[in-house]
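One chain is below:
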Amino acid sequence: MRFQSDLIPATLLRRYKRFLADIRLPDGREVTAHCPNPGSMLGLAEEGTRVWVEPNDDPKKKLKYGLRLVELPDAMVVVDTGIANRVVKEALTAGQVPGLEGEVRAEVKYGENSRADFLVTQGGRNIWVEVKSVTLSREPGLAEFPDAKTARGAKHLGELAARVTEGDRAVMFYLVSRDDCTCFAPAADIDPAYAEAERMAKAVGVEVMIFPIRATPEAVTFDATPVRAL
């Protein structure tokens, strides 16, 4: 997935109100950027962090920059959670995800007022796919989810479990949105309820898939090498 506009390096001054971030541009101007990430961005929102933002000239948008990447000393992290779905859609459509080849539809209604990120139809059987963008890493090489409590995430696991009981396949798809992790585990200390919901979902047959990305200021690329679950 290529960015629509060339990204610009900037310095993060502060992130606040979940979706706002003050940044300093290379010319010294300080502006507010849209921060499309509902999580805590734990470990990624320190003052002085180098970030990459995407400019826009849309007159309908009040904020003229969107935060896309956080550059750490040893990793590039995609903090725009919407990018995860775009990357996974490209990978599914191209048949790059083993076991999820088939016709792909996005945002399909199911369960209790929910929409599945993707519905893959494979040989007449439905495969319901929910995508989570994983940005948290508190130990070298280990990615964790979530970085904040998420009742919505637990609800999605319950919806997937219900699909399995109806005879469909269901997948919780974790996209590790950073390039320095080879293992994954639920962050049970941050959200015990989510960790328990995942355990119960897996017990009834919900599948867990974990794949990483490779990110540069030009593009985000799906990596078909699975990340090991702990």
